[in-house]
Specification:
Elements (H helix, E strand, L loop, with lengths): L3 E6 L3 H13 L2 E6 L2 H10 L4 E5 L7 H9 L6 E6 L4 H9 L4 E4 L7 H29 L12 H13 L6 E4 L6 H10 L8 E5 L5 H9 L16 H4 L4 E5 L6 H13 L1 E2 L8 E2 L3 E6 L3 H6 L5 H7 L2 E4 L10 H16 L8 H9 L5 H15 L13 H8 L5 H24 L3 H8 L3 H10 L12
Parallel strand pairs: 1-2, 1-3, 3-4, 4-5, 6-11, 6-12, 7-8, 8-11
Antiparallel strand pairs: 9-10
Helix pairs in contact: 2-3, 3-4, 5-13, 10-12, 13-15, 17-18, 18-19
Length: about 475
Amino acid sequence: MEKGKILIVDDEEDILHTFEVILEDEGYKVKTVSKAKKALEILKNEDFDLVLSDMRMPEMTGEEFLIQMRKFNRITSFIVMTAYGTIENAVRCMKEGAFHYITKPVDFNDPKVWKLIEEAVEKAKILKENQKLKHELEIKRSGIDFIITKNPTMLSIIEFVKKIAPFDNTVLIYGESGVGKELVAKGIHELSPRKEKPFIPVNCANISTELMEAEFFGYKKGAFTGASEDKKGILEKADGGTVFLDEIGEVPFDIQAKFLRFLESKEIRRVGDEKPIKVDVRIVAATNRDLKKMIEKGQFREDLYYRIGGFKVEIPPLRERKDDIPILVKHFIDKYNRKYNKNIPGIKPDALEILIKYDWPGNIRQLESIVSKAVILADDGEFIKIEHLDPEVKVVVEDFPLEYSKAKKSYTEKFMKTYLGVLLSITGGNISQAAKLAKIERQSLQKLLKKYRIDPSRYRKQA
């Protein structure tokens, strides 16, 4: 596997040849050039992870070469090779954007040299990946600016939403908590003729049963204790716009009847008032519950279900659209850089891999929370690392190896420790009896106990 692509620039041919052989033996793809001007032309047409350049060259110095290169390339890492007497010049190069310097003659037996090269290559790869993600954010937006996705299922949902949005039909959105149901509802509103009117999102689970009717339909002065004046409800306030009813399955049965009456007549009655009020509101509802099962149990009105489900949209959980994780992570890093006035350039590949492997029970809302905390923990100018991630993400992923051989080893060990523990518990730590129960030789059992570091004495019954 190719570790990275390196361009070596030096006017000494023997150095070019030696470096090429050594670096290619280590798995790097190498190109050599003896003139800095030629190197600049190559860099304009080819992509490299690292430039290794001599400081003293006939046409221009390493510092001058770097300054010219940075005018059009700020991604490729640059390491300058310098003699001990010109280290001061090398330090100046670092101020111009060089990754580091290596003293000549270069000692490839020194682990520090290889570490420097590896880190320089890795930095360039991370910068390129983050640049790619930023580009994807710009070109892969769904057509609704605030919904970020490149997942084929989500993109097809967005196309469906764009078709139904201009019409006044009700929409029922299904999806787990945190998948972005409100964003889709807002997208429907923004793509409709109602976009200049209010969009009011309401989580029905957060409104107490006693207050729900008054909150949605309003009330007349004197309707109940404390009603000191007339008050508009949510539906009346949203006149001409859209109301998003999240968790509609939490609405009590009697209030469901009032919603049904409103949807059929486009009229509401405030609590304590018999006078109907005409209200022009589009309803978009959402739930993470199975409304059909609720209907069977008598918990949800069947007629209301068919009224709100004019069109149905099902949003997949994040674990089923993991191709969206990299661009979502980039989006959240940018968002919280602005919010916290920080400069986190991106995320390291191994940290991103953990986020991709994780199952995300809290979906996008949970991912945003994890990234926002990581942005806080990372130092300014530092990439997000594994240690910046929330422990709950790391523990779950680390406890579930996905590679077959690692998974087999992990779960075999867990099974054997449990099995041997049960045997010893039954026999009170007696190895001979345990071997008979297992139908294996006593010596074989002893080997297993030693292999899995199990002490039989822990299971012996106290006299």
